[in-house]
Amino acid sequence: MTGLRELKKDAIRQLRLTPAGRTLLNAAAAALKPVDFYERRGAAARYNQRFPSDRMTLANGYALLPSGTLPGTPEIIDTCRRLFIIKKAAVEASASAGKEAAKEQRKKRGFLKNLLDNDDLRAAPLLLDFALSDSLLSIVTNYFGVIPRLTRVDLVYSIPRPMPEEHIASQLFHQDPEGVRQAKVFLNVFDVNEDQGPFMFIPASRSEAIVSAMRRQRRQAGARDEVRYRDDEVGAQGGLADVVRLRGPAGTAAVVDTSRCLHAGSRIRPGYFRLCLFIQYCTTRENAQTFDTRPFRTDPVRWLAVRPWAATAD
After folding, report:
1. How far apart are CA 137 and CA 69, in angstroms?
2. Domains of the chain (ranges plus CATH)?
3. pLDDT tens digits, 145-201
């Protein structure tokens, strides 16, 4: 079963590198769940007429949102900071000591921590309202052409590793495995410069060309085709010159298709940390948080984004 899942992931990964491949994958998704697909597409067409947006293009696969772009950002930052004070204390109190702590630091969860659970979201409904606000949802829905599934709203807390120059896991460039396309929002809760290890990415069309070239080079060299790429591999294709870094004051944000855009981050320098509000929208069914859907039952657009059967794992 694991082998079949890996073959499926690799097939999707290969097909979504080209427009023709993405068309094929979208057609297959529509054929598997035609009622759901056409319901989401029809609702998106009506919604996008009311709230058009060209911030996120198919060629680039991202939108940069300077601090102050999104209405309600000051209240969101205040809410995130208050939650962070509580969660940070809990993280530090439960941290293991000695050899176990060092062992954890060699893993992704040792330097990147997801802080919020379903109870936190129910206690802070402003975060869900923000994720479903027209200012954000319109960017994503115009990009997808369908109403997406909201899968996560979280606070992501990144801290330094003992060997900050040794990059592992999501610190290396990669594309995410979920679906054909997705959109992730990263909003800096505090000011971010290079010390805080900003989220960084390469626009989609360049990423796809770079990934094709790196995979071809690996095949020619007889090397294993891993899903993560070192800086020197990306640099050999001229990709480092195209990197966009999410730096700036609190409230600076980006919406990025991380299935298409090569990206990396959390390269935190000693003595610093980074905190991002993280929101994920998918076109496919993925593992998801459980949201309080009651406020959205009479809203056809937001109900599609959060309705129970679409916001739970298969």
Report:
1. 14
2. 2-310 (2.60.120.620)
3. 999 999 999 999 999 988 878 898 899 999 998 888 999 999 999 999 999 999 999
